[in-house]
Amino acid sequence: MADGSPPPDSKPRLEGEELERSVSGRQWYHTLELAPGVVTQGWFDTRSVAGRVPMPSLLTGRRCLDVGTFDGFWAFEMERRGASEVVAVDVLDPEAWDWPAGSTAAVKEALERRQDGGAGFEIARRALGSSVRRLERSVYDLREADLGSFEFVYLGSLLVHLRDPVLALERVRAICGGQLLVVDTIDPLLTMRLPRRPAATLDGLGRPWWWTPNQAGIVRMVEAAGFRLEGRPRRLYMPRGAGQEAPPVSPKLLLTAEGRQAAISAWKGDPHVAVLARPI
User: Fold this and answer.
1) Arithmetic mean of pLDDT, 83-102
2) Where are the domains positioned within the chain?
3) Which of 24, 148, 183, 249 has the fewest C-beta atoms lying within 10 Å of its C-beta?
4) Could you tell me which CATH class the domain 16-279 is placed in?
5) Distance from C-alpha of 108 to C-alpha of 113, rounded to nearest angstrom
6) What is the CA radius of gyration of the chain?
7) Secondary structure, 3-state, the chain
């Protein structure tokens, strides 16, 4: 192992009733088919998106990294596409996230319950018989000296939660020896208003939601961190999973910019853009 860490443990594969018990009654971020008829109730269902992002259909022989893995959908997808090794990193302790001042204990506890110490990833890994290794590591702490270099890096739906997204992308560049695929949230209304000018809205109100850029803003972040784009950005919508209820859409909801964005998400999914890049 390039970083000196041990391989995943040899716990028996989760199957049958034990798997069904482990899957039910918990909050999932990703929709994962772990066995025939056993599908997690994810907040998002990224299965239909996997074929539309500019990820190579075959990753044979490539060492790959999934940054901010959560339940592991994209890590397992890269493994399925033939990667020789997949490492997944995440911050399992919510206290170590980028919290703005004024965040309440109730909000932290709610998000901690959803994260649940990364238990969903381990359930999925055992059910799939996966050899993906997960390390507890912040994107800000990615260093080639202890992780090695990766031929393909996936960074998805993470920049929105970071106080300093450009610094995070610089850290990714330090361990990226090939391609980087960024798939992250964009503000669709800001993208329509300013299609070429980089811009972003700032949240930072009591939860780890920070910058929501327009499409040009995501591109500028990637370029400012020392990457050059490969191909045109692809706009897509992350479909809601069975674990996320769509808010009722009403004329009153459409009176505010926030309401209009919620209506778009309820109708089509969460607006994202996919950017494929390579270190300069």
Assistant:
1) 96
2) 16-279
3) 24
4) alpha beta
5) 9
6) 18
7) CCCCCCCCCCCCCCCHHHHHHHHCCCCEEECCEEECCEECCEEECHHHCCCCCCCCCCCECCEEEEECCCCCHHHHHHHHCCECEEEEEECCCHHHCCCCCCCCHHHHHHHHHHHHHHHHHHHHHHHHCCCCEEEECCHHHCCHHHHCCEEEEEEECCHHHCCCHHHHHHHHHHHEEEEEEEEEECCHHHHHHCCCCCCEEECCCCCCCCEEECHHHHHHHHHHCCEEECCCCEEEEECECCCCCCCCCCHHHHHCHHHHHHHHHHHHCEEEEEEEEEEC
* Phi then psi dihedrals of residue 235, to 5 deg: -85, 140
- Position 1 confidence tier, pLDDT thresholds 50, 70, 90: low
Q: Residue 92's pLDDT is what?
A: 94
End-to-end Cα distance, the chain: 27
pLDDT reported for residue 256: 72
Q: At which residue do the structure tokens 């899957």 appear?
A: 23
Q: Over 60: is that where the pLDDT of 146 sits?
A: yes
**Can you give the length of the chain in residues?**
280
159: Cα separation from own chain's centroid: 9
Calpha distance 1→188 (Å, rounded): 42
Choice among 3-7, 103-107, 256-260 with the minimum mean pLDDT: 3-7
CA distance 182 to 260: 25
Q: Which two tokens stand for residue 223?
A: 């370029």
| CB distance 213 to 191 below 8 Å | no
